[in-house]
Amino acid sequence: MKKSVNQAGRFMIMALLVIAALLVLIPFLWMFMSSFKDNKELYLAPWELPTIWRFENFRLAWEAGINKYLFNSIFVTVVSTLSSVFVSAMTAYPLSRLDFKGKKVIFLFVISGMMLAPQVALIPLYKLLQAMRIYNTYFAMILPYIAYRIPFTTFLLWGYMLSIPNEVEESARIDGCSYYKMFYKIIIPMSKPMIFTSVLLAARFIWNEFMFALVFTEDTELNTIPLGLMALKSDSGSNYPVLIAGLALTTIPMIILFLCIQKQFVRGLTAGSVKG
Predict the structure, then answer these.
(1) Which residues of 197-207 are buried (b: 16+ CB within 10 A; e: fewer)?
(2) Are 103 and 172 in contact (CB under 8 A)?
């Protein structure tokens, strides 16, 4: 009896997971399917396969500027993500593993950044970037992205590093390992799951960010994917399959990133409980 109940429970869980997967995959399938159609098929048969697979939609979207927008987004995302995770790891290590005066105050100061809404800081940041003479450059996007990702990423890494046993560091100290070597050779390798989780979360945020890119840049040559898709919508007029093809192309880098680090991402979500 107990075995049958467990099997029924597993079946229900699997059924719910399949339904959840379908809810996520169906919009993607529709997007890729619609990118091969023309306007007539898109409106009259939105859920049917295209009668003619129009690969030129992707060429038109690429030539309309998607290649440039992809490069800008990849450059800004890579630099901002790696910088924010690196700074956050350097910040989280002493706050979680070392004892020093004022540690709690510094920790509260860092994570208090999560309470600051980006909309509130638009005008001060705009003036600051102009004063620094980096307005309308890549760094006008990169620096705010780094600043706004550091508090949350530091909090994630701080919680994970707290869960690392103290015996590991004690053994390293006995062997004469310095704090610098301990950080790079012990803490960082053991924190890989949460580091990769932080990378994915930061990259997803920066890849889709619209407001900072719109306000802090003027040159269309600096447009990232969100701004580029808006411009593509204006350029393509009512040719929505071309716009959908451009949207499909822009999802590929994030899909590849997730597939590459999904194992570490799952481990990061299920680990890192905070002690004390």
Answers:
(1) bbbbbbbebbb
(2) no
Question: What values do phi and psi take at 227, rounded to 5?
Answer: -70, -35
Tell whether the torsion through CA atoms of 70, 73, 75 and 78 is positive or negative: negative
Q: Is the domain 65-269 a CATH 1.10.3720.10 member?
A: yes
pLDDT digits (tens, 9 = 90+) for 9-45: 788 888 898 898 888 888 888 888 998 988 888 888 8
**CA–CA gap between residue 183 and residue 90 (Å, rounded):** 8
Collapsing DSSP to helix, strand or coil, 92 comes out as: helix
The amino acid present at 51, given as its one-letter code, is T
H helices of the chain, in order, are 2-34, 39-44, 56-61, 67-97, 103-111, 122-131, 138-162, 166-174, 179-182, 188-190, 192-208, 211-215, 225-236, 240-269
| Tens-digit pLDDT profile for residues 152-208 | 999 999 988 888 888 887 787 777 777 788 888 888 888 888 999 999 999 999 999
- The pLDDT tens digits of the residues spanning 63-72 come to 888 889 999 9
Residue ranges of domains in the chain: 65-269
